[in-house]
Structure formats: structure tokens, C-alpha cells
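Q: Give me the 3D complex with pyridoxal-5'-phosphate.
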Amino acid sequence: MDTVLKRGTRRWTMLSSKVSNGFRKINLLQINPSVAILKGLNFTLPATPLTDMSDPSSHHPTCVHVNLEAFRHNIRCVRSYCGESVRIMAIVKANAYGHGVVKLCRVAIAEGVEYLGVARAEEALEIRREGIDHPVLVFEITPGNHVAAALSENIELTIAEPGAADAISATAAKLGKSARVHLKVDTGMGRLGLPFASAPAVIEEILRRPHLELVSVYSHFATSEEPDTSFAREQLSRFRQVLDDLGKRRIEVPIRHMANSGAVICMPEAHFEMVRPGIMLYGYPPARNLSEHFPVRPVMSLVSKVSMIKQVEAGTPVSYGRRYVAPRRTFIATVPAGYADGFPRLLTGRASALIRGERYPVAGTICMDHIMVDLGERTGCEVGDEVTLIGKSGAQSITAWDIAGTIGTIPYEITSLIPPRVRRVFKDS
Ligand SMILES: Cc1ncc(COP(=O)(O)O)c(C=O)c1O
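A: Here is the predicted complex, encoded as C-alpha cells.
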């Protein structure tokens, strides 16, 4: 007999479990050690695991639709704007900004993207586990206990502080290889990197280690998407000074890179040999006002389905805190998507949802797993209708920028906070 669950002093023990007619019959016995047997329990569950991907109809209706053609289009936009000679590192950290890293890496590679960029060694290792052996750079400082795993998988590492160089070189020596490293210079972002003033001397010293192969020197902009470009230009000039000094020290830098989406669009002089676009590949300019300049298309939609419709009288409160009170007799739709699906609770009182090409207000507090939508006095909507929370429905659309703008954040946060419980469904043309 297997113990399947322990709760307090009680234990559930599985007496039997067998599959018949597609259902698993489970017979459980609850035992309280001090009182002996309390009761037995029989029930049935579908034999198919909940995570089975073969039957889309068995899945929860709240999901992210990922438009692969839009993603390809956005990569092509960057390519044609930067030119064939500039390499593209697709930034796919944080599950490709919430879009589904493995699938998007494959599409990016098929589109000719030369490099992948992730924040953490674990993210790069996940990519490798899926059989993707494309060049990939980790931006963060890789903890010592992850270095060996990363190097054995040919993952390229950032050196952003001199202390890391010894450990990386020693580990590479043990593995009998050279570590391909990218040296990061802090030119004003104030996050990671060798301080620009001392960077050339420090880089020269770091590269004395025998098992390090320099692949690139790079930096990161703090303000490249802002209308005032003065600080971004100052950062670029500091980066150039570092590169000039390295040249004087006869250090050959194979690749120089600095341009995130803001600089891809606004600072062509910062493209160097490689650019590092992130948010623009997912269809959003890094600042709202830049959308006219760059015709990228949103890749993600967040959708669900109406699970219940009821008619309520004027004065009926809806949702937690009774913040919404029906102003008239109206139909209320319940939709199984909430803040635990990445639809922020801060949108309460300010959100809308699209159904059958029409826009309706979200009524009352956004719950963890649900929202309610006020459909009005008369409705043609039905249970099962698709509800769009981000994306297009008929002529209406809600973008991640709309949501971000409403609650004072950026589309990066909206898309990357959609949790794993929301299934990603990849749509191709
Ligand atoms: C080091 C680095 N490069 C490039 C990017 C891409 O930036 P964006 O999404 O603004 O294009 C990021 C994202 O934050 C980053 O951390």
C-alpha cells in the first residue's frame, strides 16, 4: 500500500488504483494513528494526466496565443533596419519575455538570428536540454557552482567583475577547454560591469588567464529609448573610449555590442557588430512614442472564455469588497482569468475585455482566478465566447502597452509576469 497524502496526524493510504473505461478508480483509506481507521473513500479521476498536451479541448480556456509570424516579422524588421552585416542576439530571458522560450528560440534560429541572450545560466541550460546548441550568452554573474555545467554545455559567460575570472578559467582548465567569455563594462547603467574608467587595464589583466577566450566586450544603455539622448550619447562615448584604449593595448575585440531595442531604433551609431533587441522582437517599442518609427507587431494575446452569464438587478454588488454595484439591470459574465494569470489586480476599475469584437468594462475587483465583465442590459454573448484581455477582437484591440500605461509600468512586466499555469499556444500562418 502506498501512502499518498499526509495531513497533520492523519494519513491517506491508497488501497487500490486501476484504470477502466478511461477513468482511474482510486480507493483511499484515511488513517488516524491514535484512533485507528476512520473511513474509506472511493472516487474516479480521468486517467489522462492534466498536463497531457494531445487534446486541446481538455485544457483550461485561459491561455496565451503566440503569433509566430509576428515574431518572424519583427526579427526581419530589425534585420532590414540594421543591415545584413550586423548580428542579432535575440534576448530570450524570462521565458522569452513570457512568450515561451524554447519555441521562440527555434523560430529565431530558423530566421537566422546569430546569438541568444539570457539572464541566467539555468535559462541557458534549459535551452541546451531542449537540444538547441546555438551560441548563447548569460548576462548575470554566474554563481561558482553553475560554472562547470555552463561551460560543459558551451554556454558563454559574462565577466562583470574581476573575481569571476579565476573561477571560470580554472573550471575551463579542469574541463580541458577554453571558456568563451564576454566582458561587460559599466558605462553608466550602474548595474553590472567593470567601471569604465579602469576597465581597459582590468580587462588586460583578466585576459592573462590561459583558459579564457575573449568573444566580446559589451555595455548596456540606461536611457536609450528616452527623448533626451544626452546620457545615452555619454555612455556610448565612454564605451568607445574603453574600446580605443583596448586597441592601444593590442587587445583584439571580435564583437562589440551595446544596443538594446531603444538603441536599435534611436542610435544606429551604437549598432557595432551586434545588436541585442528584446522587447521589440515581441512587438512593442521600448517607449510608446517610438511605435510610429518601427512597425513591429505584438506577438502575444491573452485570452479566455466566458464560463457563466447571469442577469443581476440594479444595485447588485459584484466581486470582492463590493466595489462595483450594477448601475442598472445587467448581464454579468464570469471569466476564469485573474491576477494569478498575469492580469494585474491594479487594473481593478480600469480594465476592459473584448468579446465578439466589442469592448466591455471589467466589473469589480480582479480576483486571483476570475474577472467579471459587465455585458450591459441586452447581450448576444454566450458561455464559451472567447474573451480577449490582451490582443485583437474585430476592430478592437488591447495592447500590453495599454495595460502597462494604465497601471504605470512597462509592457516587459505585463508579458513576463504571465505565469507558467497559463498555457502558451503557438499559432503559425
Ligand atoms: C543586457 C541586456 N541586453 C539587452 C536587453 C534587451 O533590452 P530591450 O528589451 O529593451 O530591447 C536586456 C533587457 O533588459 C538586457 O538586460
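A quick observation: The chain has three domains: 2-49, 67-293, 301-427.
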